[in-house]
Amino acid sequence: MKQQDLSASVDSLLARSASLPAPAERARLRRAGSLTQAEVAEALGVHRVQVARWETGRAEPRAPHKQAYARLLKGLSARYPAPEADPVAG
């Protein structure tokens, strides 16, 4: 098998297994980055309603959009980490 074919096979597996944060965290990250659903949709080549569905959990992205969306969210999470939970006063 050629190196190019191997790379394509690996990329395909990565696209299928790209992990995404929970839907609410997806929305938080987008908002933290001051991005609109329309901007994300345009960058990923989908309709805005798809991004809305991904952020509510009504749908999950599929390849090749899933890999690109996971990359975007990973970049945003590095810039805007989730706030730490406040300890419960007791």
TrEMBL record:
Q: Which organism is it from?
A: Streptomyces lasiicapitis
Methyltransferase among keywords: no
The record's annotation in PROSITE patterns points to: HTH_CROC1
Q: What is the protein's given name?
A: HTH cro/C1-type domain-containing protein
Per the database record, which ranges form the HTH cro/C1-type domain?
Answer: 35-79
Query: What UniProt keywords apply to this chain's record, in alphabetical order?
Result: DNA-binding, Transcription, Transcription regulation
